[in-house]
Amino acid sequence: MSLSDEALPGSDERAAARVPGDRYASDPTRPATSARGPWWRWLFLLPGLAAVGYGGYGLVTAGSRVPLDSWLTWFVGAALLHDLVIAPVWIGLGWLAARVLPAPARGPAVVAAAVTGVLTLVAMPFVLAPGYSPGNPSFLPREYGRNLLLIDLAVLLVAAVWATLATRRHRAGPGPTAD
After folding, report:
1. What percent of the chain is helix, strand and coil (3-state, nearest 5)?
2. Half-sphere exposure of residue 16, counting CA atoms within 13 Å on the CB side?
3. How far apart are CA 104 and CA 170, in angstroms?
4. Residue 146 pLDDT > 70, yes or no?
5. Are 139 and 133 in contact (CB under 8 A)?
6. What is the pLDDT of residues 6-42, one digit of tens each?
7. At 29, is the secondary structure helix, strand, or coil?
8. 130 φ/ψ angles, rounded to the nearest 5 degrees
9. pTM metric for this prediction
């Protein structure tokens, strides 16, 4: 299958104005945006839809083993937390990084933010210690909050060094050429 097989019929002159030097992007017979593609791309949805269907079936047929009201609260709560808190914070941080950081430092900043975010999310059950009892000190035997802070600081330090080196390398320009 060639690229011309995927093109929609007709012409889209907006494509030529977007990237004048790129012959693929400036091809007016190629649409600027298209949701249509080869039929086989839709096959990638099938495993995900099967997993969702299997999970939904298991949830509905579990009977009293799964309290649906509690599950629904957590399910909707996670969506609201993401849409109303996490996504706006990420958008704001991205906007701030684009305004404050030099271009070579933005990649390391995004990687550091993503890594510390995932580490914090994974470590939160240990840091918050639900169900902890002083009568069983072996249940959570470490200082998880302190350790999370140290690991996050190490990630941020590595990202700061990476960003500094990338910025210096960018400002220095290309090295001498071997003529």
Report:
1. 70, 0, 30
2. 6
3. 7
4. yes
5. yes
6. 444 555 555 555 555 655 555 556 555 555 667 777 8
7. coil
8. -70, 135
9. 0.60
Give yes or no for a contact between 151 and 119, defined as CB atoms under 8 angstroms apart. yes
Question: Rounded distance, CA 178 to CA 15, Å?
Answer: 39
**126 burial level (CB within 10 Å; 0-12, 13-18, 19+):** middle
Quick check: 32 and 14 in contact, CB under 8 A?
Answer: yes
Task: List C-alpha distances in Å: 52 to 44, 74, 135.
Answer: 14, 17, 41
Burial class (CB in 10 A: 0-12, 13-18, 19+), 149: middle
Residue 175, φ and ψ in degrees, nearest 5: -75, 180
Residue type, 170: H
How does pLDDT run across 100-137, given as a tens digit for each residue?
Answer: 999 999 999 999 999 999 999 999 989 988 877 788 87
Of the listed ranges 49-53, 64-68, 109-113, 168-172, the one predicted with least confidence: 64-68
Name the token pair of 166.
Answer: 């990338």
Burial bucket for residue 44 (CB in 10 Å: 0-12, 13-18, 19+):
exposed
Tokens at 100, concatenated: 């404050």
